Amino acid sequence: MEFFKVLSLSDVYHLFSILQIKRKIEKVPLEQAVGRVLASNVQAKEDWPLWPRATMDGYAVQAKDTFGASETNPAYLTLSGEIKIDEIPDFELQSGECVAIVTGALLPKGADSVLMVEYSEQVGNLIEVKKSLFPQENIVLQGEDFKKGERVLESGQRIGFREIGALATLGCSEIEVFKRIKVGIISTGDELVKVDTVPQPGQVRDVNSFTLNALLLTQQIQTTIYEFVPDRKEALKNQILTALHKEDVVLLSGGSSVGTRDLTLNVLQEIPDSKVLFHGLALSPGKPTMLAKVGEKFIFGLPGQVTSAQIVFLVVVNPFLRVLEGEKNVFTNIWPCKIKAVLDRNISSKQGRYDFVRVRLSQREQRVVATPILGKSGLIKTLFLADGLLPIADNCEGIVAGREVEVWLLH
Ligand SMILES: Nc1nc2c(c(=O)[nH]1)N[C@H]1C(S)=C(S)[C@@H](COP(=O)(O)OP(=O)(O)OC[C@H]3O[C@@H](n4cnc5c(N)ncnc54)[C@H](O)[C@@H]3O)O[C@H]1N2
Ligand code: MOO
Fold this sequence. Notes:
Blueprint: H1 9-18, E1 25-29, E2 42-43, E3 53-54, E4 58-61, E5 75-83, E6 97-101, E7 113-116, E8 120-123, E9 126-129, E10 139-140, E11 151-153, H2 161-169, E12 174-178, E13 182-187, E14 192-193, E15 204-205, H3 208-218, E16 222-225, H4 233-246, E17 249-253, H5 264-270, E18 274-279, E19 283-284, E20 290-294, E21 297-302, H6 306-324, E22 338-343, E23 347-348, E24 354-364, E25 367-372, H7 381-384, E26 388-392, E27 398-399, E28 404-409
Parallel strand pairs: 5-6, 13-16, 13-17, 14-15, 17-21, 19-24, 22-25
Antiparallel strand pairs: 1-12, 2-11, 3-10, 4-6, 4-7, 5-9, 8-9, 18-20, 20-21, 22-28, 23-27, 24-25, 24-26, 26-28
Helix pairs in contact: 1-6, 3-6, 4-5
The structure holds ligand LQZAQKY5 and molybdate ion.
Ligand LQZAQKY5 is lined by residues 187, 189, 191-192, 204, 206-208, 253-259, 262, 285, 287-288, 303-306, 308, 377-378.
């Protein structure tokens, strides 16, 4: 069998970004919208705030009446009233006057700033002003958060706690989001045994079902772990068909390379209506990775090696799932948390493939230092002991000790 015609990581990201995907939309209550992807733009139906508001307790004033005022040279204003938090002021403040106001209360017409109570003294019905204010000091303006008609959030944005705050401010109690996807996990291999089994020589506990499930659950994706299957074509095909029935995406692991018992490619090609989109990536670890489309559903074949399967999930499957869920700009923000560090030993890398080196981070004097954890992709500990991934681009032959690098944080 001929080995894969490998795709580069940038080719695969491009492929993901041009896939035609039919997505379903649903409405969810605001409190359940976190983590979801917006399916429509959100516009402000009104200015927010609706009216200028005080941001400090004190006195609403005209700033020009306070110009030049100080502790030693105070200005004096006549106290002409009080505005409560839920009151609409129905008067206009005149020059030489002030009114008592609380944080959040509406500013009367004529006032343009708020003197903090700490810089004042009440003397009869006069207020001694001990500070010069500038216009708009200690107030928020009408529409300072959002202007009526402004597009505040865009379809394709992932909703986090900050977006929830904006949606609540805008009065959106029901949010249009893309439907979440469902992902099934199938491990393959004659050598696999259940986690609670004592393996005999030649056997290994099924680890990938659990790491992939954990990775998906951290993204709040609904998962099903299917029973692992032996290296038999019919068994694998049946399990895939069962999973495809229910899931949007199926993650297979093992059997994706080119050995005699590596059946995944063959089985995927035999599934009715399936189209293999790629087989093989210029990626290490993770070269024997493949993707097939069956109607509107997708099947990933991931390498069996425990570390490879997790890294392929992080750098390939997860960006794909984000695209599938309708998220925009995935490829300009593949990894949210990065840190600069200094590499403490040389690392070589093969030109023409992307390497993801596992690194440990430590603090030495004022610098963060990245130490590569070398080891094979079949060992769980290279990832387990790592604090981050150091990507080495496919046009690079390695990095010398002492260079500053960017590490993708794993926690
Ligand atoms: N002639 C070549 N052979 C291999 C190449 C190559 O380029 N040419 N690539 C190697 C690379 S890189 C990887 S990665 C592996 C991946 O192979 P498969 O996806 O076919 O995986 P398996 O052979 O089924 O398993 C590999 C290894 O991982 C263990 N494994 C599998 N599934 C699980 C699981 N669910 N939990 C724990 N461990 C699992 C399995 O026992 C094997 O030890 O191919 C190389 N070969
Ligand atoms: O994909 Mo393999 O993962 O390089 O060991």
